[in-house]
């Protein structure tokens, strides 16, 4: 596996791991930003600091959307260690129109990759045209999370990896629930 492919997998998996911190069980999601081959920030969906979360008191649904949580893209913009200008953003799920418009395009993001499809995303019919009009590459990725995770675990079992020489190999098991 070449270095760029490995970096892409690791950055996707780091974003996936951050999504478990999301506090709205309608969609636990996260986003990350990369600039110059370095991660510069993460954001996951959750209520404002000090406020109760959906997981604690339930959803605040308005027009079919939960409005209790701040989206991961907003938290990414707030948490980033540097400007998002020129960065690539990875998102677990489909970004909504306000996040693409107000958080990413307005911040100068040059590329948005998103995994999966969230059928309740706001304004999805406008997102592509907005990205095109602003020279932002927008790509829906068909991510095989199991294969991606397995390839990274295998790499950790090779010489120099944390699992090398431990007498075991970790294997991802996909089973129906």
What report would you give on this structure?
With 177 residues, the chain is an alpha/beta fold. It folds into 2 domains: 3-143, Cytidine Deaminase, domain 2, CATH 3.40.140.10; 144-177, no CATH class. The chain is 33% helix and 18% strand. It has helices spanning 3-19, 54-57, 72-79, 97-104, 124-133, 145-156, and strands at residues 30-35, 38-44, 61-62, 65-66, 88-92, 111-115, 137-141. A 5-stranded mixed sheet has the order 2-1-5-6-7. A two-stranded antiparallel ribbon has the order 3-4. It is globular, with a radius of gyration of 17 Å. The mean pLDDT is 92.
Q: What is the CATH fold-level name of the largest domain?
A: Cytidine Deaminase, domain 2
The total of helices stands at: 6
Radius of gyration: 17 Å
Helix content class? 25-40%
Number of strand elements: 7
CATH superfamily of the largest domain: Cytidine Deaminase, domain 2
User: Beta-sheet strand percentage?
Assistant: 15-25%
User: Could you give the distance between the termini?
Assistant: 32 Å
How would you spell out the order of helices and strands?
A: HEEHEEHEHEHEH
Strands in their spatial order, largest beta sheet:
2-1-5-6-7
Question: What's the pLDDT, averaged over the residues?
Answer: 92
